[in-house]
Design a protein that fits this description.
The two termini are 23 Å apart. 25% of the residues lie in helices and 34% in strands. It has 238 residues and is of the alpha+beta class. Strands 1, 2, 3, 4, 7, 10, 11, 12, 13, 14 and 15 form an 11-stranded mixed beta sheet that branches. A two-stranded antiparallel ribbon has the order 5-6. The protein contains 8 helices and 15 strands. A hairpin with an 8-residue loop joins strand 5 and strand 6.
Length: 238
């Protein structure tokens, strides 16, 4: 007997604004539409923007599979300044003059990251150690050893460089910390760097061009929301 699905069993593609956490977005949608089961497929840092896949109802059963999809990001890296979180949210911990750099030089260095990498999660992250998120330990000034994780970078390329900012795009596996890539790139250049901005443009077969802004989603009626939801069965085939 075929299982019946409601119009709200599936996924909603949200273009996340800078500011709220991914959990904030889930909570806002849950409360606004009075839904019981809501989740997301892949955390975006508060100041990161772009595609956030929100799963609703029975769609939450597919969250692990959707989360495991490859991702594409666009962003900017600021050279000459290092932060404790590896991004613009953190405290400045180092500043050095930026050496003369060309776009070709940056892309040559970026090319060194393509392929399999063992990446150590940053202390300011949601990865848990002994059941405690690392960022909570970091706030107390505690640093603990972290297990490196295998990731894969399919493509990493800069499209523009105007000192001290470089604009880039990167395609990678799930769980990749792009701010760690920015930090390591700064070390290779010799002046330090941090992730200045980040936007997720794609996750698996879904693109941010298909998404709607969170503010728009929160103005939808329940009937309009149903029209925006990708049905469970279609989602299962994605």
């Amino acid at each position: 007997m075929m299982q019946e699905f409601s119009a709200l069993d599936g996924a909603l593609l949200i273009d996340k604004p800078a500011g709220p956490t991914s959990h904030d977005v889930v909570d806002a949608i849950r409360r606004h539409f009075n839904l019981k089961k809501v989740g997301h497929c892949g955390t975006l840092d508060p100041n990161a923007t772009g595609l956030l896949i929100i799963v609703l109802g029975r769609g939450t059963k597919l969250s692990e599979r959707l989360m495991s999809d490859d991702k594409v990001y666009e962003g900017t890296i600021k050279f000459g300044e290092t932060t404790d979180s590896y991004d613009a949210d953190g405290e400045l911990v180092g500043s050095l003059p930026v050496p003369p750099l060309t776009l070709d030089q940056l892309n040559e260095i970026a090319g060194e990251f393509i392929g399999d990498l063992m990446q150590v999660p940053p202390m300011v992250s949601a990865v848990k150690k002994g059941g405690v998120p690392l960022y909570k330990l970091a706030r107390k000034g505690i640093e603990v050893p972290r297990e490196p994780r295998l990731i894969h970078i399919y493509n990493f390329r800069f499209s523009d460089y105007q000192e001290p900012l470089g604009s880039f795009s990167i395609a990678c596996t799930k769980g990749t910390y792009v701010r760690s890539i920015a930090h390591e790139l700064g070390e290779k250049v010799g002046c330090g760097a941090h992730l200045a901005s980040l936007r997720r443009s794609a996750s698996g077969k879904f693109d941010v061009a298909q998404a709607i802004p969170l503010a728009t989603a929160l103005k939808l009626s329940p009937q309009e929301l149903e029209q925006m939801v990708i049905p469970f069965l279609k989602l299962a085939q994605a």
